[in-house]
Amino acid sequence: MNPFIENLYQSFLQNNTKTCLRIQDQTHTYGDILDLSHQIRIQLQKVDSQNVGIYLTDDVYMYASILAIWFTGKTYVPIHPEFPFNKNLDVIQQADIEVILSSIEIEANYQISIIDTKEVYPLEAILPVDSSIHNNAYILFTSGSTGKPKGVPIQFSNLYYFSESFHSTFGNLNPNDRVLQMFELTFDLSVMSYLIPWLNGAAVIGLHKKETKFLQILDLLEANEITVALMVPSILNLIIPYLDTEVKNESLRLNLFCGEALLTKQIKGWKDFIPNANIYNVYGPTENTIFCTQYKIEDPIKEKNGIISIGKSMVNTTMTFSDNETNEGELLLSGKLLTHSYWKNEEKTNEVFVEKDKEIFYKTGDWCLRDIEGDYFYLNRIDFQAKINGFRVELSEIEFFSNQKLNNAISVALIYKDKNNNDLLILFINDMNVEDEIIISYLKDNLPEYCIPSKIVKLEKFPINTSGKIDRNELKNKL
What we know:
By secondary structure, the chain is an alpha/beta fold. It folds into two domains: 3-296, ANL, N-terminal domain (Rossmann fold), CATH 3.40.50.12780; 389-476, 2-Layer Sandwich (GMP Synthetase, Chain A, domain 3). The protein has helices at 3-14, 30-44, 60-71, 85-94, 156-170, 189-200, 213-222, 234-239, 264-268, 346-352, 395-403, 436-446, 472-476; strands at 19-23, 26-29, 51-55, 75-79, 99-102, 113-116, 136-143, 149-155, 178-181, 203-206, 228-231, 254-257, 278-283, 293-296, 303-304, 307-308, 312-313, 317-321, 328-335, 353-356, 359-370, 376-381, 385-388, 391-394, 411-417, 423-429, 455-458. The strands form seven sheets. A nine-stranded mixed sheet has the order 2-1-10-9-11-12-13-14-17. Strands 18, 19, 20, 21 and 22 form a five-stranded antiparallel sheet that branches. A four-stranded parallel sheet has the order 4-3-5-6, sandwiched between helices.
């Protein structure tokens, strides 16, 4: 049997009575979810297509659907109810999806079959299908520069080696662990947040739609309900202002950050709240299966422009630059976690997957440098490197100096084209009270004139996308 599926199936059998999922104030055992997956699999037996849509309902049936699809040897593709109709329809058509699994009625008419995951059938134990480890486990569609979603297929083998990388770096979880799952299934960080607990008999703590996400997380941490958490740095911007200096979290033992640059100023306001946790900055694109580097955050913190190091590669991943002799450039990734193509998109595949030293590497689009100890530092996206009046401007450097004059706030620098197609440098700050003159004066003391923003825009909160990251495109709509 596919060794990845075998490991997962055995964990569900061995941890039958342990808590597998707590969501919407309901607790479900491994046995409960395995039984639900069996009932869904009965309906999947008549489905011929390899790729199966999952309508994101954030309930136990959604998670049981993942298991049912995998134990049938098939591939799941998330369909987000809050995404535009045409975007979802494009995903359905690109992935040749013939059926969507859902526990609720789908109002949008995608003109394909819907399987009701709440349908009850006589219980029967069904062994997982003997599928290939090279089958795709899931395909995530991300927005491309043209607006047309591009599909990233990740195989069971990639997940098998990711779990090996995780366990060799951070150790095994145990059945007493309670793991935060704060992500939509359209964001691949969700996969770690349910898969690693499932492989170790731990409990997944999911969030619901009835309350703001960051407030739920804060409540869980203050109540010592979480022991392991993977989070995006942006969530700290929302949580930290609500922290009570008299209240400490005692339960969190492992805290990982991924998805966007982690700033030293964010972590300094967080460490005191979670005194018992080992904190790591991890990094990785969707194409290289969730994340592939690790840096343990200890004093003194390694950073460049206030951005914490992404550290060294985990096992099963190779990191390098185009020129082996340089220590700065576009980061390239290779190894057992890497997909080798986009879904039915040869042009985009050829653009970013390149052969080097007889290996396939992925061009991340991230400009990084490497220090003498072999630790890597993310500096910025290559497409964030902009020019104003012919001068190269590093947006992360502007943000770094601006952040030094902010307390419980951060800044985001963007290049914006005005109606005459001129490039303007705009600085957004999530603090309504700071004086513009203080920021501008400090930037002028530390940066050349061409790095000084044309305008400062103050917002109470930055817009967040469905992945929980700062939505830079939506920021431009605030002008």
